[in-house]
Design a protein that fits this description.
Length: 442
Amino acid sequence: MKQAFRGSVLHFLGDPTESGRADTFEYHEDGLLIVEDGHVAGLGNARALLPTLHGAAALTDCTGKLIVPGFIDGHIHFVQTDVIASYGRRLLDWLEQYTFPAERAFADEVHAREVARFFIAELLRNGTTTALVVGSVHPASVDAVFEAALARDMRLIAGKALMDRNCPEYLRDTAASGYADSAALIERWHGRGRMQYAITPRFAPSSTPEQLAAAGRLAREHPDVYVHTHVAENEEEVAWAKELFPERRSYLDIYDHYGLLRRRTALAHGIWLDDADLARVAATGAALVHCPACNLFLGSGLFDLRRAVAAGVPVALGTDVGGGTTFCMLRVLHEAYKVAQLRGISLSPHLAFYLATLGAARALDLDGRIGSFATGREADFIVLDPAATPLLARRTATARNISEKLFLLMTLGDDRAVARTYLMGKLRHDRDARDSAPGQGK
Ligand SMILES: [Zn+2]
């Protein structure tokens, strides 16, 4: 089936920070995105392309709106959906006080399925078409979120948390059971539909050396699955990791020692990494996931994006719900801008949107499939409304170019600016649809 979508269309071809590249993005004010059998089949000027279709494509008019590749959320906890916006704690006591009790509830599969359905709908409502998801320690939590994503043919990466110490008894696995449960989930889910698995030690302090060794073994046995964890988010946490693994040079070195750094490793935060650590992340091909909304909310610190980029580290952005206070990547871009300001640089709207789309796809080794409108890519895209609110409409009317429009969307926009979300060319969220099924996030 052939479809065509007419509107302003923007996607990235390269990294805007690479010097000497003038062609890092492609923008058509009156553009046409052509989709065939769920994949991108063409992109160009609408007036030029429309006659070539000879009426053989279903045309959707998105005039006045901006079509971009769907957002990629590089780090989010679906099992923390119900503790988002919990008051008054920092990372370690926030985990104790709010997170662990909430994750306990995922021992109940009915609860896991209910939250998973809401979670996936909420991602789509916010324009996120792929996410890297942390589950609870219970394998059934991961089954639940994969089932909900599979039902919508959404590309999703997820894993069960490995945690065998320094957490409540009721949330502990063991090195052996964590290994076996993860192996079974890989067998069941990795490569099924658009599902991919991530080996997910929660963070070094909550795993014994035996468990990290088992995770490393699993990673060696499955070279194409992801590794997903946290590193150097908060200073108390860094000190604690050092205390627990005194023989390791740094927090990052713990993961390195157990063979967990490689291409397809995503490390959330990395605020407190030193230069040697950053060089090591870059050398191994791992990526950092910057989660500014969470870092500000938990008071963890200010990530230095410029330093990471200069070190050659691939960077994605994440909401980190429930430490993060939004599912919306537009708001994450806004928070990233403010964190960068406090670090003495201004995050350009082009770099911000790149990091949420193609940049994240590259960091996660998915740029051959998603993140841009290159021919053959999976047609996961969103339709943004630059006039979503009276203020956004008023201010956008004065915008002189696409760069200013993008900046207004990321600064004044939120879920209301996401008019539609498409997965593989299929409409999966329509802001303006009048009736929606219960549990669809409306
Ligand atoms: Zn996290």
